[in-house]
Amino acid sequence: MAGGHVRTQERTQVAIVGAGPAGLMLSHLLHLHGVTSVVLEVRDREYVEHRVRAGVLEQGTVDLLRDSGIGARLLREGQPHEAINLQFAGERHRIAMTELTGRRITVYGQQEVVKDLIAQRLADDGQIVFEAADVAVDGVDSDDPVVRYRVEGAQHELRADFVVGCDGSHGVSKDAVPDGVLTTYERTYPFAWLGILAQAAPAVHELIYARHDRGFALYSLRSPQVSRLYLQVAPDEDLAQWPDDRVWAELHTRLELDGDPVRVTEGPVLEKGITPMRSLVVEPMQHRRLFLAGDAVHIVPPTGAKGMNLAMADANLLGQAFDSWYGRGERELLDGYSRTALRRVWRAQHFSWWMTSMLHTFGGADPYEEQLALSQLRYATTSTAYATSLAENYVGLVDV
């Protein structure tokens, strides 16, 4: 008994904290390998399935979802894109990703991936505990780690062979690592993104990344009826100062070109929010019986469209590693998880920083940096080699 409430003790092979893309994908992959898991999530199912996040899937992420049996709706409803557009100095330039790399990206919202994964886990009798409060991870230095949590007042103890923290940058999993073990690398950018989701048919079928004197803008989409658009704003911007009319006016200014047929399509704004821009890496991504994945250990600015894709890559590595451990008694992949994952993480960090610094304005604070950014954009749109490098990173490198 604890505090007058029943304490329930449970056991699984892998306890997963966080029902985002990484945690759910890992749970699904473990199921395919015959490994048991329990996923704990502090939010309710409704919230998890409807929080709008990333929407660009690399070729490798699409392949992973398809090959693991999750891709039916993605392949039916996702929108494959073979190019992106870079816009600056009053001109738009097409980067033909598929022509340059043989691969492409697919636009399919993160919330849709999460819905598909939850549906599959429940269909497979997988255990997802929503609204798990007061989650705490303990004993990761022992052979018997435990995750404690509370549901509807009842205390639970979930014991496992391993714990995987997929609970985001503000999650509790990292707290289980002793002081002095983890090193954090971080950069905060002097701007944020104001994003809207609008019930408006997109006027484009390929994303437009625009650098304008007034700041960056992105024309993206989620479906044939829904547009996703972003504006660069100050990091301390007051959202109340951005009524819909002002947002649309600024999008028209930054995205439309003289004499060009593309005109931003307006419609009812379904969501609006401001996202700070930062880069973060926490090393190592594992400590004894605890493994960390996704936003818990790395965050990238959304300019490079890498966040969810990195999370899925982490889950794939861990799925293979646990399969090797439980299936053949081999620990090499588990022991090397952090080292292997960080190669991809740092490549994505560099690409995301590069795209961000090249496409955003810095308020004229450093004219030298401004000219460097324009030079990079000119080079990326005139050099096949440079454009190929951009395309390779954007669609997702096969080997990192």
From TrEMBL:
Keywords assigned: FAD, Flavoprotein
InterPro entries tied to this protein: FAD-bd, FAD/NAD-bd_sf, RIFMO-like
Span of domain FAD-binding: 11-351
Alphabetical list of Gene3D superfamilies matching this protein: D-Amino Acid Oxidase, subunit A, domain 2 (3.30.9.10), FAD/NAD(P)-binding domain (3.50.50.60)
SUPFAM superfamilies: FAD-linked reductases, C-terminal domain (SSF54373), FAD/NAD(P)-binding domain (SSF51905)
Pfam families in alphabetical order: FAD_binding_3 (PF01494)
Domain of life where this protein originates: Bacteria
Entry keyword annotation includes Ubl conjugation: no
Protein name: 4-hydroxybenzoate 3-monooxygenase
